[in-house]
Amino acid sequence: MTFDDARSLLGTELSHISEHLDECLEDSAYAAMGDVPASFDARTRWPGLIHPIRDQQGCGSCWAFSTSEVLADRIAIASNKPSPVLSVEDMVSCDTGNKGCTGGQFPMAWRYLQTKGVVSEACFPYTAGGGTAPACQNQCVDRESWTRSKVYARNSYAVNGVVNMQKELMTNGPIQVGFLVYKSFMAYKSGVYQKRFWEFSPMGGHAVKLVGYGTDGNADYWLVANSWNTVFGIDGSFKIKRGSNECGMEELGPPSAGMPASESVLVV
Question: What is the pTM of this model?
Answer without folding.
Answer: 0.95
